[in-house]
Amino acid sequence: MSSEYGSLLLLLALITLSTLRPSLAADADTLSDFIAPPNTTVDAEFFTYTGLRSFIGATPPNFTVYKATMAQLPALNGQSVSYAALFYPPGSVNPTHTHPRSSELLFLLVGCLEVGFVDTTNHLFTQTLQQGDIFVFPKGLVHYQYNPDGQNPAIALSAFGSANAGTVSIPSAVFNTSIDDPVLAASFKTDVATIRQLKYGLSH
User: Which of 11, 74, 165, 174 would bridge 160 by S-S if both were Cys, CB 3.0 to 4.6 A apart?
Assistant: First the structure.
């Protein structure tokens, strides 16, 4: 009897997990058409974001991301979507990073990019993109983009399946936080002096 009861509990647990899985994979669903913060006037302006106007024609000297997430456009709350415009000067890189809450669909508008991501088996997938190409970075995996052209910039747009995909920069998360130098030295099988040089290089 106890064995049958245990099997039934296990079956119920598996069914529960399988039904919860879709809801855990994306932003929480809404019970209304949209979500507005308290004391907010809801009109067409609420659903409009003009912050990317500065992206048009811009030529910043360093790699730059122009975001349209829930932080910039509160109307995205509950809509499971956000956007980013990316500008890559000649020879620049979007360093290794992850988006813990969403996959990324990148559309290359101008130039060329070398892109790649590493899966959970440490297999590296790389591709050279040309203008008009699209590439998907799976959710939560470490990835990067690099403009190999030393003369011309690259421009891309990225769509995310979350209003707040989040970004964890690997270099910053590892070397610009409070992880002790001896821990990092042991992790990378090097010495503390090398770790401190890396930290100095990232901060200047």
Answer: 165
